[in-house]
Structure formats: C-alpha cells, structure tokens
Specification:
By secondary structure, this protein is α/β, with parallel strands linked by helices. The chain is 38% helix and 20% strand. It has a ten-stranded mixed β-sheet with strand order 2-1-3-12-11-4-5-10-8-9, sandwiched between helices. A two-stranded antiparallel ribbon has the order 6-7. Bound molecules: adenosine-5'-triphosphate and magnesium ion. The site of adenosine-5'-triphosphate has 17 residues, from loops.
C-alpha cells in the first residue's frame, strides 16, 4: 500500500447520462479512498445544458476557477440542446480544453478478454489489442488561424456572386507538434515501446511538417520503435491488424475519426475512457480533464440503462495520471474486468446468457470488488 494522501477532484456531471455514470465513478473512487486510506474532496460544478439553464453560460467563471484549483477534473458529458440554441452546451468543453490548455487527449483501447467472442470482429484479430491514441486537441482544423493581414475569417461560410463557399484552415506550429509527439514517446516508454505517427503527408503541408518534427523528436527516443502511417492506411490497419499498434499519435481531426473507429474494437462507446492533459503539473502528477468518450446519450438518459464502465475507467485514468496513484488505478481496472468475467453486462453489451444490469447495479458490483 502506498502513502495516504489528500486530493481535490472537481466533478462536472453535466447532461443526459453524464450525471448517472459520473455518480457511479464517484462511488468507485469512494471505495478506493476507503480501501487505501486516501481522502478525496469532491467539488461539484454545473456544466453544459444544466449550467445554461441555471447560470446562462455553458460553464461559469466560478466553476472554471474551482477546476483550476483542483488536482483533476472528472467530467460526465454535455449536450442535448435544441438545434440552433443560442448557447451550446459543448462550449463548456471548448472553454475547458482551450482555457486550461489540455492539448493531449489520450484514448486507450483494450478490449476485455472476456468479451472477444461476442464481438462482431473476429476474436483472433482482437486478441492482444492494447493501444492508445494520442490526439492533438487544441490545434488544427478545429481552431483555424490566418496570417495577419489576410482578409476573411479562418473558418466561415460566405456568399460570393457564384454562390456560397466555405473555408476552414489547418495550422500547426512546430512547437505544437513537438509537444504532442513527446507525450506519445514518453507514454510508449512505459508501454510496449512503439510509436506510430499518423498524417496525410502526401497531400497536406501541415502533415509534411508534422512528419519532419516527429522524425526529429524520435531521435531522442532510440529505445522506442517509430513509424509513419498515412491516415487512410491507418484506418484500414486499425481493423485489419489492431494488435500491431501501441501508441498512435495524430492531429485533431484524424484523431477524432480514428478513435471513434477504434472504439468499436472495445465493443461499445460505453467502455472507453479518456484523459486530456496539458503541461501543468500538480503536486502528484499532470493536471487533467477526464471524461468518457461517449456523449450525453439523450436517447437512454434517466433510464438507468447507461453503461458506467467508461466513466469508471475514466476515474482510473484520473488516479494514474493526475494523482500518481497507479496501484489504485490498476485496482479499478481489475475490478471492471472481474465483473465482465463474472458475466455482468449492461444493455449496450447484451449477450446471450449474460446477466443484464442497470447503471447503478453495475457501478455497485464494481465498487464492491474494489
Ligand atoms: P452527444 O451529442 O452528447 O454526443 P449523442 O446523441 O451523440 O450525444 P452519444 O453519447 O455520442 O450520443 O452516443 C451515441 C449512441 O451510443 C447513443 O445511441 C447512445 O445511446 C449510445 N451510448 C453512448 N454512451 C453509452 C453508454 N455509456 N452506455 C450505453 N450506450 C451508450
Ligand atoms: Mg456523440
């Protein structure tokens, strides 16, 4: 058992199934606290639609300040506004990511060995899959730039005499590429020591620079195997030979698409956690924002149907990266695996002969095993 500590965690449950799954993640963290003698101080804040309705903003400055003062942020999900609403719940995420400079989004994909036979993908292809996608989160097409003096906006739809046209700009600086590639190499050192850098260097200038910088950074990590892959080829190989990947590093949009694809290797969106990290260190690790990769899922909200495993594994990532509690993180992951092995499933994982549990019941079983 490691040393006992006191930690502050900002909790932003948000909308839809966010509060339901976050509640279970908090229960599991409370079980860890009890088991290891830590004390976690949870500070709750409003975010998303819930915050818009109460405070007129997707996230208030006060809530942002609470987040800033914490060791880590546990986030549920936001969404579910009417199309065309004046304030979008998703703005909360953009403010958090951009404002707190969480530029590295980590998405591990490790299918449970107990679920391989139920997958629509052949078990022999899924065997041994244990990869992590490192997605750049604060640059690229999502945040267009134009050089000073160039007219127009970096991202807009505009009217011309010939009809409408639209523009988005994809800009990366050397420094932005270097810092994300370093995150990937540092992670690989603690894993199977392989980095795959994904780009579209046969078409995009930003990718040519990406490749050049990645190549240079790789020289500092002679102990880590390194390869480049075009994004289209990567999309194919993720389905054909997913077990061959260890760490995949890529720009914002490619990472968005590849991680949704990769989520199917794990069986359901309800299984996958994520961490968004920056450079700021806390007393115990790296300051971060932790959220399941799924959204608010309004279609199943309030029915005790959502799978809480993604949120619970997200809490494990929080312990590992921000609080430096590696053993405790592994304890949560083992408890999740035990429950799957015991035959417990949620609705999204429905499988012949398995026991279907609700959100609360699944969370409870996992917390008990912790
Ligand atoms: P958002 O706009 O917030 O992303 P969405 O409608 O796109 O909401 P997602 O959360 O992205 O919903 O989910 C897409 C689909 O996957 C939905 O049908 C949802 O029911 C299902 N899903 C997502 N998360 C879970 C979960 N934790 N457990 C079970 N099913 C889920
Ligand atoms: Mg969605």
């Amino acid at each position: 058992m490691g040393t006992q500590g006191t930690y502050s965690i900002a909790v932003l449950p948000g909308d839809g199934i966010g509060p339901e799954v976050t509640e279970q993640a908090v229960h599991v963290l409370q079980a860890i606290a009890q088991q290891y003698g830590h004390s976690f101080h949870f500070q709750y804040g409003l975010v998303g639609l819930a915050a818009i309705e109460a405070e007129g903003k997707a996230i208030s400055d006060e809530t942002l300040a609470v987040c800033q003062g914490s060791d880590a942020i546990l986030f549920g999900a936001v969404g579910g506004a009417q199309p065309g609403a004046a304030v979008k719940p998703e703005e909360a995420l953009f403010r958090l990511r951009k404002g707190l400079q969480f530029f590295a989004n980590l998405r591990p994909v490790r299918p449970s060995p107990a679920m391989l036979d139920a997958s629509s993908i052949k078990p022999e292809i899924l065997q041994g899959v244990d990869l992590i996608v490192v997605r750049e989160l604060t640059g690229g097409l999502y945040y267009g730039h134009l050089e000073p003096g160039v007219p127009g906006k970096p991202s807009e739809i505009r009217e011309t005499p010939q009809g409408y046209e639209a523009i988005d700009t994809l800009l990366y600086t050397e420094a932005e590429i270097e810092r994300i590639v370093r995150v990937a190499f540092d992670l690989a050192r603690e894993r199977r020591k392989k980095v795959t850098s994904v780009d579209k260097a046969n078409v995009l200038s930003s990718s040519v620079l990406w490749r050049r910088v990645a190549e240079r950074v790789s020289k500092d990590y002679p102990d880590v195997a390194f390869e480049h892959l075009l994004v289209d080829a990567c999309a194919m190989h993720l389905i054909r030979r997913p077990a061959s990947f260890d760490v995949i590093v890529t720009e914002n949009l490619f990472g968005d698409i590849l991680t949704d694809e990769a989520s199917m290797l794990a069986g359901s969106m309800g299984m996958l956690p994520s961490a968004s990290l920056g450079t700021r260190r806390t007393e115990h690790g790296i300051f971060g924002l932790y959220e399941p990769i799924h959204g608010s899922a309004p279609d199943i909200a309030g029915q005790n149907k959502a799978n809480p495993i993604a949120a619970i594994l997200t809490a494990a990532m929080l312990l590992r990266h921000s609080l430096g509690l590696k053993e405790e993180a592994a304890t949560i992951e083992a408890a999740v695996e035990q429950c799957i092995q015991a035959g417990y499933r949620t609705e999204d994982l429905r499988e012949e002969g398995k026991e279907i549990l609700g959100t609360k019941e699944m969370g409870q079983r996992i917390a008990e095993r912790v």
